[in-house]
Amino acid sequence: MDRIIPISVVVLAKNEADILDDCLSTLHWADEIVVIDDQSVDRTAEVAADYDARVIAHPFESFAKQRNWALRHAGLRNDWVLMLDADEASTLEFANAIECAIQEAGSETVAFRTCRRTMLGNRWLRFSDGYPVWIMRLVRKGHAEFADQGHGEIPVPAVGGKMGTIDRPFIHRPFSRGMGHWWSRHIRYAEREAWHESQLETNAKLGQLLSTDASRRRLALRSLSRKLPFRATFRFVYQYLIKGGFRDGIAGLQYCRMMACYEQMIVINKSHLRRAVQPVLADSRVFVPPPRTSRKRSAERKNVAMAVARR
User: Fold this and answer.
1) What is the pTM of this model?
2) pLDDT tens figures, 124-153
């Protein structure tokens, strides 16, 4: 693609020098690239400079907060903003779909749902990852914001206007930095998710499971699964058998097993949190009323006390 699309692309990064090139090299069609860097100590800034990207340092709190901060404070020069992570990349088909979408968007349209192809090596996890999973990543600056949920963000949050759909996917390579990095990251995610679930138990409504909105169905199913016994096993059965992860071959089996392990890590962390809270409750100074006794027994105790006093 030789033409430039009037769009700003924001890329979140932290020590991503090894993979950032794979992301930025696919964004030559964007008018502006801004890397929001969480205090990297590697060559992230130098790699970004090779693609004429602006680098702005800002400490990471959460995905949604980091994206919203960029929308408000990064001085983006275009109305439309695409949000990507360092392990994601564009395709020409995705860029063309964005160009058509923003050209045809009316003033009432403030955001677009997008989807991505999750890769394990060279294998597309089409069924294991439940493609397409809709996530809001293209927004009109000043008219839409992102919202936190657990370790991540609400895939399709409520916005003050119309939301369109871009059905051409971009690429997601969560294993681009190796299996060890994926596991260490998901250990942290499991801790955050467990804390979130402990603080706020979402009550899913049965009707949402039958919603025509795939995002609502997915959220309701996720909420319901938190209350089920053997939820790690349920996650594996759902992804591998019900959603057809077995059709992705060995890669699908590996991914579904890994996600089941991640689910079990959340369960274990929630159990630890509950045990940590119980001693605090036991030691707290809470008034405990004495056990109730009958009037007859109270009178007997009073008489005994008086007799002892006379002695």
Assistant:
1) 0.80
2) 999 999 999 999 999 999 999 999 887 789
**Cβ burial, residue 190 (10 Å; 0-12/13-18/19+):** buried
Token digits for 160?
Answer: 């003050």
Q: Alpha-carbon distance 311 to 31, whole Å?
A: 99
Read off the tokens for 190.
Answer: 């499991």
Ranges of H-type helices in 141-241:
179-199, 214-225, 231-236
The number of angstroms, rounded, from the C-alpha of 243 to the middle of its chain's C-alpha atoms is: 20
Rounded Cα gap, residues 230 and 220, in angstroms: 18
How far is 222 from 106, CA to CA, in rounded Å? 34
Contact 16, 76 (CB under 8 A): no
Q: Which of 224, 223, 263 has its CA nearest to residue 240?
A: 263
Would you tell me how many other CB atoms lie within 10 Å of the CB of residue 192?
16
d(CA 236, CA 26): 34
Structure tokens at 311: 């002695």
Q: What is the DSSP letter of 177?
A: T
Geometric angle at alpha carbon 216, from 131 and 185, rounded to 5°: 60
